[in-house]
C-alpha cells in the first residue's frame, strides 16, 4: 500500500458496542405511543443515520404531519428513553474482538479514534470504561453534516494529526462506508457493512479478523 495506515478510526454503535437494540427499543416506545408503525426492518435504515434523519424515516409511516417543534419533542422523548437504556451498558456490552483489536493497535503504535454520529458518545464511552482510551473522539456533538458526509471522519483524522490517506475507518453502516470513501480513507466493513461491495476490506466482526492484516 502506498500510504501506511497510521491511524484507525472506529465507528461506535455496531463496531465497538452494540447499542442498536437500545436505539430500537427507544424509537419503538416513542412510535407505539404515537401510533406510528415501526419494526426492526425499518430500524435497519436508521443505522449510522443522525437522530433527526432517523425520526424523518420513522415519520414516513405517520398519519399526521408534525410541526418542527413537535418533531424536536419526539426526538427528545426518544433520546430520554435511550439515555435511560444505555445507563445500564457495561464493558461486557463491547462487541466481540473490539477490545483485542484496540489493544493490538496500541501495541503497534497505531493511533486510534472514534468517529460516531452519536451525540451520546461521551456517555457510551464512560459506560464501557473507555472514556480516556482513544487518542481522539469525533462525534455527533462536533459536526453539522452527518454520514454519508465525511465530516466526522475528517475531524477525527485532523484530531489525530494524520492525513486521510493514512487512516483506515471501521464501519458497520453503508452511510459510514460512503463517508469514509468520500473522505479519501480506506474502509473496513463489519457487521451490516461486511457485504457492501464498496468496502475495501470486510469481516463479519472484529473477532473474525486480525487487524494487522489490513494495515
Ligand atoms: P444519537 P454510530 C449512530 O451511531 C447510530 O448508528 C444511529 O442509529 C443513531 O441514530 C446515531 O448514532 C445518532 O445517535 O441519537 O445518540 O445522537 O453508528 O455513528 O456510532
Ligand atoms: Mg454504526
Number of strand segments? 6
Computed over alpha carbons, the radius of gyration is: 17 Å
Give me the number of helical elements. 8
Give the helices and strands as they follow along the chain.
Answer: EHHHHHEHEHEHEE
Strand fraction: 5-15%
- What percent of residues adopt helix (DSSP H or I)? 25-40%
* Unreliable residue stretches: none
Mean pLDDT: 96
Structural class: alpha/beta
Major beta sheet, strand line-up: 3-2-1-4-5-6
Question: What's the overall geometry?
Answer: globular
In words, what does this structure look like?
This protein is an alpha/beta fold. 40% of the residues lie in helices and 12% in strands. It has 8 helices and 6 strands; from the N terminus they run E-H-H-H-H-H-E-H-E-H-E-H-E-E. The protein has helices at residues 20-34, 40-44, 51-59, 68-86, 98-108, 121-127, 151-160, 174-182; strands spanning 7-10, 111-115, 136-138, 167-171, 186-190, 201-203. A 6-stranded parallel sheet has the order 3-2-1-4-5-6. Helix 1 (20-34) crosses helix 4 (68-86). The structure holds 1,6-di-O-phosphono-beta-D-glucopyranose and magnesium ion. Magnesium ion binds at residues 11, 13-15, 47-48, 172-173, 176.
Can you describe this structure in just a few lines?
40% of the residues lie in helices and 12% in strands.
Topology:
Blueprint: E1 7-10, H1 20-34, H2 40-44, H3 51-59, H4 68-86, H5 98-108, E2 111-115, H6 121-127, E3 136-138, H7 151-160, E4 167-171, H8 174-182, E5 186-190, E6 201-203
Parallel strand pairs: 1-2, 1-4, 2-3, 4-5, 5-6
Helix pairs in contact: 1-4
Amino acid at each position: 500500500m502506498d500510504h501506511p495506515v497510521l491511524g484507525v478510526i472506529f465507528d461506535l454503535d455496531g463496531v465497538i458496542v452494540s447499542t442498536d437494540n437500545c436505539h430500537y427499543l427507544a424509537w419503538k416506545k416513542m412510535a407505539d405511543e404515537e401510533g406510528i408503525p415501526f419494526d426492526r426492518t425499518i430500524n435497519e435504515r436508521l443505522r449510522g443515520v443522525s437522530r433527526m434523519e432517523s425520526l424523518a424515516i420513522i415519520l414516513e409511516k405517520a398519519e399526521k404531519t408534525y410541526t418542527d417543534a413537535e418533531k424536536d419533542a419526539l426526538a427528545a422523548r426518544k433520546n430520554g428513553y435511550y439515555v435511560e437504556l444505555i445507563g445500564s451498558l457495561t464493558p461486557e456490552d463491547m462487541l466481540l474482538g473490539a477490545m483485542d483489536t484496540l489493544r493490538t493497535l496500541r501495541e503497534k503504535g497505531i493511533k486510534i479514534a472514534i468517529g460516531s454520529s452519536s451525540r451520546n458518545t461521551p456517555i457510551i464511552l464512560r459506560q464501557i470504561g473507555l472514556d480516556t482510551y482513544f487518542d481522539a473522539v469525533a462525534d455527533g456533538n462536533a459536526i453539522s453534516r452527518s454520514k454519508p458526509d465525511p465530516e466526522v471522519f475528517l475531524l477525527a483524522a485532523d484530531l489525530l494529526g494524520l492525513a486521510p490517506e493514512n487512516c483506515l475507518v471501521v464501519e458497520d453502516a453503508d452511510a459510514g462506508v460512503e463517508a469514509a470513501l468520500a473522505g479519501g480513507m480506506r474502509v473496513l466493513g463489519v457487521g451490516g457493512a461486511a457485504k457492501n461491495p464498496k468496502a475495501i476490506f470486510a469481516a463479519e466482526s472484529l473477532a473474525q479478523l486480525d487487524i494487522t492484516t489490513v494495515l
